[in-house]
Amino acid sequence: MERVCFRMFIKLDRVDEYEAEHQQVWPEVLDALRKSGWHNYSIFLNKKDGCLITYCEFDDFKKSLDSIAREEISLKWQARMVEYFVPVPGLKPADAFDQFVEVFHLA
User: Fold this and answer.
1) Active-site residue identified among 22, 47, 76, 92
2) 3-state DSSP call for residue 75?
3) How far apart are CA 106 and CA 57, in angstroms?
4) Euclidean distance between CA atoms 60 and 68, whole angstroms
5) How confident is the model over 11-33, as pLDDT tens digits?
């Protein structure tokens, strides 16, 4: 199982809206994530600076990313969410995240 953590930033004037959107994630999006191999998926938001930390577990991270990228409902959800993120010059929103390297895990 691959444990993956990455970081992005939400626009400070949109953090409350972003949080509210995630209280009602579309059931079809949740199904697509599960079908694509996303497990134990959590999103954490620091409302002071807009830092968003995502943690998820995968059997195969690259395969799961490729799979969810082909799901039409996921593309619709991402299109809806893109307005909340701080843009990263030169990167598409779906690629604009900093992935962390795991250095310790207490099982």
Assistant:
1) 22
2) helix
3) 15
4) 12
5) 999 999 999 999 999 999 999 99
Distance CA 52, CA 45 (A): 5
What's the whole-model pTM score? Answer: 0.88
User: Which stretches within 26-98 are classed as H helix?
Assistant: 27-35, 61-69, 72-81
Is 105 assigned a catalytic role? Answer: no
Maximum Cα–Cα distance across the chain: 38
Domains and CATH numbers, the chain: 2-87 (3.30.70.100)
Q: Decide if 65 contacts 79 (C-beta within 8 A).
A: no
Rounded CA separation 9/84 (Å): 9
